[in-house]
Amino acid sequence: MPKKYLPFESVSRRDLLKFSVGAGVVGPLALTAGSVKAVNTKAHIVIVGAGAGGISIANRLTNSLQGAKITIIDTREKHYYQPGWTLVASGVWNQAKTETQVSDWLPKSVNWVKGMVAEYDPDNNQVILETGQSVAYDQLIIASGLQLRYDLIEGMDVGLIGQGKGIGSVYASLDAAAATNTEIKRWISKGSGTGLFNLPPTALKCAGAPLKMTFTTLHRLEDTGRRDDFNVEFMTPSGKLFGVPFYNDFVKQRFSDQGVTRNDFWTLKAVDADAKKATYSVKGGEDQVKDYDFLHVVPPMTAGAALENSPLAFQPGESFTGWMKVDRETLQNPDYPNVWGIGDVMGMPSNKTAASVKMHAKVLEENFLASLQGKPLTAKHNGYTSCPLITGIGKAMLVEFGWDSKLLPSFSFIDPKKESWTVWVMKERMLRPAYYAMLEGKI
Amino acid sequence: MTFFGTLTVVWYSALPWLWLIALMVIIFLAPQVIARMKGYSFGSQGGMGSKYLPPLVFVLALFLVPMQTQSSIAYVNTWVDWMNLIGASIGLGIYAWFVFHPICYLRNRKA
């Protein structure tokens, strides 16, 4: 959906349509416009990664800077609304709902370099691409996301997902999410068997997704009327299901109520897809092998070799080793003040969600502009992250929290501790529009 | 949220439903315009249809609106859920009255 500009003015046709559709509805509410005054700069700003964080900050800086040269580096042509993949894998959405083009969202003035960063060289203010090309910068924003390390699970390959071997994984790709749905349907149509659901031993993006997949699958199993014929087990490497104690206890209780066997301190180590056997390392015990009919694989996740091997990462012995080193409140690298982070790549508790990116982008923009003007960095990230925790197809809880698991509800009238149809409707209908507005840098 | 931020969210929310919004506007306007050309006003005599169909639409909407969102009335749980559902159903009931009332007026006039 490329933007179309009228020949006689700089307002896009889409903006005019938005105005006409929306003005009548929200006019009275919308008088809180808070545009930032443009800052003049000749700086060359390089953004690594054209995912949610990269696109969002590119749009924001395009609007708030004058004279800057902005370059974004990424090979990806397609942009996916990844929070929708759990709905695809649960058979609620079709694939097309989550797919757009990166070019739909990038401002025309941004220079898009189609490459991947192989090396960060912050001492010389440059990044080196896999092609050997170096790109110099005055300011660097790292939005490179994270890497899914299926390779760390012996015998696992994303090509196995949806191949009739009982393996699914909502994280791997949009096609994999759809194939996971196919695999779950195949298991359900068998009429019995064991499903194994997992958490990884590392930080993960959308930490609620493995739980959502379990809950939606339980819903589908219960809909068959033969729930007792299916065995469902959930494996946790840390013994925890969720970082926030209330939701951890809630999910534990719900799993117990819904007949899910929990295996704490079990980590998926290997998969034998042909034999449908999963091997787990068990803390303080011997490895265990489980037969399965369906296995939901959640891979270990890391920041990627280029960043991990750079001076920009937390070093061994520090918290969040291997993830990007930032001050968790200002999002600035403490060692290289012209290097900033946004999104999943950063080393901080939780915060690997699209909702976090929305907050990161605001804080980053404000601090970035302040830094360019030689002012103190006053914007502080409060750790906000959010997860509409789907507890069944048609109901969800709006989980929002910040540092130290402090609940940060956005809507005083929505009880964050209750399952709700309204929250489901928000997840199913409203969050994708809000996400797109975030990409455009509008919220 | 800024002005254009709010509009952007509204725009992307409405985008998949523009066809339905347009269809509903046409279904609303067509009987209103035709009936008004023949002397109709909101105070005119309607008929059985405009008396019973809007409440029926309201009651059906209580079940169909959650279903349309791939959910069920069984998951309408909190007071906010009920407010939203009842509000949406009342809105559809009122919309039905605006459609059926002029249609009934035209039917009565013919008869």
From TrEMBL, chain A:
What SUPFAM superfamilies is this protein classified in? FAD/NAD(P)-binding domain
- From which domain of life does this come? Bacteria
Q: Which residues form the signal peptide?
A: none
* Domain FAD/NAD(P)-binding span(s) in chain numbering: 44-162
Q: Which InterPro entries does the annotation name?
A: FAD/NAD-bd_sf, FAD/NAD-binding_dom, Sulphide_quinone_reductase, TAT_signal
Q: Which PANTHER family match?
A: SULFIDE:QUINONE OXIDOREDUCTASE, SULFIDE:QUINONE OXIDOREDUCTASE, MITOCHONDRIAL
Indicate what this protein is called per its UniProt record.
Answer: Twin-arginine translocation pathway signal
Q: Name one Pfam family in it.
A: Pyr_redox_2
TrEMBL record, chain B:
Q: Which domain of life is it from?
A: Bacteria
Give TM regions: 17-35, 56-76, 82-106
Mind listing the UniProt keywords for this protein, alphabetically?
A: Membrane, Transmembrane, Transmembrane helix
The protein's name in its UniProt record: Amino acid permease
Q: Supply the source organism for this entry.
A: Marinospirillum insulare
